[in-house]
Records
---
Amino acid sequence: MPEDKPDKPVSPPPAAGEKPAAAAAPPKPAGEAKPAAPAKPAGPTPQPWESEMATRLRNRYGSGIDPKTYLGQKYIIADASIVYELLQVMRDEEQFDYCVDVTAVHYPQRKEKEFDVVWILYSFPRNERVRVKTMIKDGDPAPSVAGLWTTANWLERECYDMFGIRFEGHPDLRRILLPDGWQGFPLRKEYGITQQDSEWVKINLGIESGR
């Protein structure tokens, strides 16, 4: 009788020490959509700051201020027209006797008021820290608080040096970190990370800036 032949060719057994070939995965149906990425979880958001002090200040300034808290950090957004008075009240009536820092944040996409000016205050009697901030246009001055806290004298000079914000009423507003003839303000967003005043470097140091 003729020998029966198998319907499909049979693969030879693997040689000694050789791993058997893995079975091919079945093909996916054409046009099968990929599963959607999981939604990004929502992060924390600022919340209204409720306290006796916040209530006193709301009663006094109404819509001119907006006390908030974010991840345990308390801050007050104040209208530029009342921010100096608010800061004086914080020192004289709310016992914030130490000005930790005066700084700014640059938001060039905010065409109307592209700078936040921020005062970080601390109260030794209350062991409490609060930020006060206001928004100003480029070229508008912020009020100097050097007469309220002596430390603000140097802090405002640094803020001017880095951001170009002028503090109205400052007794001696000039650069504090960079040379007097330096051009531009390095912490503005449009100031390139490798940018230098190549003219000043060449004239005063006799070298190229290396840009």
---
Amino acid sequence: MISKDGNRSSTLPPFLQWSPAGRAVVFFLAATSIWCLLAEFYGLCSMRTFTFYVLVPATVVLVFITWLDRARGDGRLFRSVVVGAVGGFLAACAYDLFRVPFVVGAIDRVGPDWLRLPLFKVFPRFGALILGEPFTPAQTDSQFTLTAHIVGWIYHFSNGMTFGVMYMAMIGDAVRRSWLWAIALAVGLEILLLVTPYTGFFNIAQTTRFIIVTLTAHLIFGVVLGLYVRNRSRALALA
């Protein structure tokens, strides 16, 4: 249906549109990715159980309502979810690229001591938790299965993408809102990293160096996410 101003209007109920109710639904569904890990930390249920019975169904529902808005709605929810997901993925890539030198230094024992941090050690552990494979704190990365490594990386990028979607749901309109809100989200993620059992659970020393490096990485995540989302949303608004 086309409205009087020439734009396509939606016949979907408000909770399936890019309205406050619809954004709340999108935020809730996207947040199940990080809740998956938090459920394991706080003993609510295993990460494996949460993944298969909550995260996967929630992702299917989110994809469905995104498609539904594209097919029968005004397309705002569809565009916002896609822009947020792409922005979150690109931000996660930038976040990881910044951390690569520290990971290489830790693996190969090269460079100064301050440049050695095993920041990727959590990824195969994510995968092992989802697959239900037991591991010990002293277990090395090479002792995890290839499947655990792959699943762990997929889960890591799912977090980045869903953080992007959650960011879009929080700000609503990336054209009008300041992109600096993405920095606020990034700082919030760093605080979450430090106040939850994350470091203790994965046997990571919460040193000043670790905090500085991870905070910088999260700030890079926020800058890339905020700028991409703003610029892409402006381009779509002008199209």
